[in-house]
Amino acid sequence: MGYRLILTLFVVTNFAFSQNKPEEVAKLWYQSYYQKNFQKVLECSYPEIFNVIEKNELLDIIHQSYDNENFSMSYMDEKVNFQFSKEFDLAEGKFIIVSFPLRVIVQQKSLVKAEEIEAYKEFYKNRMVAENVSFDVIRNSFIIEKTDMQLLVKNEHTDEQWKIIQFDPKKKGFVQIFFGDTFLEKLGF
């Protein structure tokens, strides 16, 4: 009996630790967006976010951002190649910047007129900080291509587990709210 208990604890402990590698967290987070499993996205997210915005409210916002009366948005690629920075060990915790190519399809629910295409393309390019935006006439959809960045965080607020937070060094956002204005300098931005 004692042997089984020890073996079970060993397997469970190893499984728990193996599930919280930065690579696994990034992959799970991305796959959750790809599958539109937004509840799982929030489970991967930095928990301090929910002190700023209530979890169910954020879940509703994400749902509305991906499917509403105007469009439906989806990640196009099931898998992507992540690039991980070195690990930054700072007073605020441990951090890794993860970047990856992101292709999103935004299918418009009403027919886009020819004279509107360029305005939409410019809107999506600016809104999503995209490198390329094209229009697929057959699918009545915009294809948005960009390099996305996220920040993996491991600190006391995450119970020393890797969690992810949206990261754009050009915009003020949650990263600056939680870690301060000088934080970007510490990461080399």
Textual characterization of the structure:
This protein is an alpha+beta fold and 189 residues long. It has one domain. The protein has helices at residues 2-18, 22-34, 38-44, 49-52, 55-66, 117-127, 174-179, 183-186; strands at 71-75, 83-84, 88-90, 93-108, 132-136, 141-154, 163-166. Strands 1, 2, 3, 4, 5, 6 and 7 form a seven-stranded antiparallel beta sheet that branches. A hairpin with an 8-residue loop joins strand 6 and strand 7. Helix 2 (22-34) runs antiparallel to helix 3. The model is unreliable at 2-18 (pLDDT under 50).
Principal-axis shape equals: globular
The biggest sheet, with number of strands, parallel, antiparallel or mixed sense and barrel status, is: 7 strands, antiparallel
- Compressed to H and E, one letter per element, the order equals HHHHHEEEEHEEEHH
What is the number of helices?
A: 8
Low-confidence stretches: 2-18
Euclidean distance between termini CA atoms: 55 Å
Quick one: how many beta strands? 7
Proportion of residues in extended strands: 25-35%
Query: What is the average of the pLDDT values?
Result: 90
Number of domains: 1
* Estimated radius of gyration: 19 Å
Structural class: alpha+beta
* DSSP helix fraction: 25-40%
